[in-house]
Amino acid sequence: MLGPSRRLPRIGAHARIAHFGGGFELGMVVAVHEEGRRLEVRCEGGEITEFVLSPSTARFVSAASPHGPRLELLADPP
Predict the structure, then answer these.
(1) How far is CA 62 from CA 1, 67, 76, in A?
(2) Which residues of 14-34 are buried (b: 16+ CB within 10 A; e: fewer)?
């Protein structure tokens, strides 16, 4: 039996936010909505950014603009 092809979002999951131009920052998922298709992430600076799952790319993109930052869910630390 096969499992999910990507990490499933959950509250407390660590994430990396990729900004346009190559900058990265760490974040943590603080809320999961719409069965995991909409996430709220607290960034390093403390601000909350909302991401949605893009139906065309299956990646999390900024809810404010599809050309904004992207979100990558990270593995749990050992």
Answers:
(1) 33, 7, 23
(2) ebebeeeeeeeeebebeebee
Torsion 6-51-19-29 (CA) sign: negative
Enter the tokens of residue 73.
Answer: 């869910």
Question: What is the pTM for the complete model shown?
Answer: 0.86
Q: For 21, which DSSP code?
A: T
How do residues 3-16 score in pLDDT, each as one tens digit?
556 678 999 999 99
Residue 62 token pair: 């900024």
Task: Say if CB 60 and CB 54 are below 8 A apart.
Answer: yes
Q: Which residues pair with 31 in a beta bridge?
A: 40
